[in-house]
Specification:
Length: about 210
């Protein structure tokens, strides 16, 4: 899959696979079919997850999101440091047919607000130590109805680990169309995706 930053601002990465072929499903389920379940897929320092572990967690994330009525085409922001959990939150979002929107932890509150408004995020998955930033702008993001917290412990918070622990990993990936978005990336200073021409975002998977 090849894609680029039109005008140097925002990348909208589309599934661009054959109709009904989910790109993360192809990656993770395909790895297990090839017998790669025990191979290392993701690493964070001394932590390592195999393809089997990444597929299991990503499928659980997808099931949990569907339980929260997050479906195909819905935008899910992932506001986190670079962790294994954040990676599987992104992969699980795409596995569910939704659109992942990674948000840098270095962003200012107004930038984060503008990006969530621009993409129309209905859910956010956030680090516990960043959750207060999200809460400070949540009232200004009317479409945001679900917040899931890595390590959430406060009353009313949905804890990521508890949520996926109770979710089934058995469901397969959501079917998608060839031009369904997979994720949206905002580069530094970009707040809107309104000027991105859809024809310029990628090429078909070969």
């Amino acid at each position: 899959m090849l894609a680029r930053f039109p005008d140097g601002n925002i990348l909208i990465y589309r599934q661009m696979a054959l109709v009904t072929e989910n790109i993360v499903g192809k990656l993770l389920d395909g790895a297990l079919e090839r017998g790669w379940g025990d191979r290392i897929a993701l690493s964070q320092g001394d932590r390592h997850w195999t393809y089997a572990e990444v597929r299991d967690t990503s499928a659980r994330v997808a099931t949990a999101l569907k339980t929260l009525r997050v479906g195909r085409g819905d935008r899910v922001a992932v506001f986190s440091r670079d962790t294994l959990e954040a990676a599987t939150a992104i992969l699980g979002t795409i596995y569910a047919g939704a659109v992942a929107v990674p948000v840098t932890e270095l962003g200012r509150p107004n930038d984060i607000r503008d990006r969530l408004l621009d993409c129309g995020a209905v859910a956010a998955i956030v680090d516990a130590d960043l959750e207060s930033i999200l809460e400070s702008i949540r009232s200004e993001v009317p479409d945001l109805r679900e917040v899931i917290v890595f390590g959430g412990s406060n009353p009313g918070q949905r804890d990521f680990r508890s949520l996926i622990r109770g979710a089934s990993p058995s469901a397969g990936p959501t079917d998608v169309e060839a031009d369904d978005p997979a994720f949206i990336l905002y580069s530094a200073g970009a707040r809107t995706a309104s000027n991105i021409p859809e024809s310029d975002v990628g090429q078909r998977l070969r």
